[in-house]
Design a protein that fits this description.
The chain has 304 residues and is of the alpha/beta class. The protein is built from nine helices and nine strands. Strands 2-3-4-5-6 form a five-stranded parallel beta sheet. Strand 2, helix 3 and strand 3 form a beta-alpha-beta unit. It is globular. The two termini are 13 Å apart.
């Protein structure tokens, strides 16, 4: 059995290892992914099943125990509404989610992202009421209200840098909230999609990482020619792009507040039209890239 530094635990997001198209049922796809994760030596399975029956949910929980997986809960967007006019509803919804996460899933950490993959919920919005500083102030206010609720349940929340803000900006939010229950779901490559260098995030987000998305991305010449921009960011297997993954892993192993047993969860980026044009079976391409990513991380963090 392989031993890893800091007893880190590996896993992958569901989209990084899609089930073959021959498996059509949603729950059967989930079971297949869980079996594959176990086969590859993963100890974290972050997928939260949606739209399944109570019987299937119990079967899912049983499989999590059988495989010895850690889970990762999904934080609802009501966490960003605790300071708003619907604060009572938002707090009630949050508490229900935390109860489900703790007592049904048995997970210790939840994650989500503030940004919705649009300019509107990013640092680039200049509309009054939605400027960078205004959004960050509201985010700080809401997370400050969430912190004591999370503490009551003994659960942790990792906010993903989700194509919204720089790592330094989110780190400033975490500093202001100043709670051990609030930190980062550190996505190691998303900064490229905010037109920043993802490696600049390493010192800011590694020290707040409660869970991770270990992702790589490379910068290539744009296939759309000059009028649409000279360079674009596209996904790739971990270790093959412009993210300094060894530096990321070193920083996480040294600085994460949960560095003993930290979850290293592989996610793959947007591969781009060129890859899709060259690969008729993108599912197989994703699975191969995911396996290569896991092997790269395993090789780097294994004890020698």
């Amino acid at each position: 059995m392989i031993s890893y530094k800091n007893n880190v635990k590996l896993g992958f997001v569901g989209g990084a290892y899609p089930a073959p198209p021959t498996i059509e049922d949603r729950f059967e796809k989930l079971k297949w992914q869980m079996a594959q994760a176990h086969r590859m030596g993963c100890e974290v399975f972050p997928g939260v099943p949606m739209g399944i029956s109570e019987e299937q949910m119990q079967a899912y929980v049983d499989l999590m125990h059988q495989y010895g997986f850690e889970g990762v809960g999904q934080m609802p967007r009501c966490v960003f509404e605790l300071a708003g006019p619907e604060k009572n509803r938002a707090e009630e919804e949050l508490c229900k989610t935390l109860e489900f996460t703790k007592y049904t899933l048995g997970a210790k950490v939840l994650k989500n992202g503030y940004g919705r993959l649009r300019q509107e919920t990013s640092r680039w919005n200049r509309t009054p009421g939605m400027t960078r500083d205004e959004q960050l102030a509201r985010l700080t206010e809401n997370l400050s209200l969430a912190a004591p609720i999370l503490e009551k349940y003994g659960l942790y929340y990792g906010l993903e840098n989700h194509l919204d803000f720089k790592g330094s900006e989110l780190a400033a939010v975490f500093e202001s909230v100043h709670s051990p229950y609030i930190g980062s779901c550190y996505d190691t490559a998303n900064a490229f999609y905010v037109n920043c260098d993802a490696n600049d995030d390493i010192p800011y987000l590694s020290k707040w990482a409660l869970t991770t998305h270990i992702k790589d991305t490379k910068i290539i010449d744009s296939p759309f020619n000059g009028p649409d921009g000279p360079m674009i960011a596209v996904g790739c297997a971990v270790g093959q792009g412009n993210v300094d993954i060894p530096r990321v892993l070193d920083a996480l192993l040294e600085n994460s507040p949960v560095r003993d047993g930290l979850q290293l969860i592989v996610e793959l980026g947007w591969f781009g039209c060129q890859v899709a044009e060259e690969n008729a079976d993108m599912g197989a391409y994703y699975r191969r890239a995911c396996e290569e990513s896991l092997e790269f991380i395993k090789d780097y963090v294994k004890k020698t």
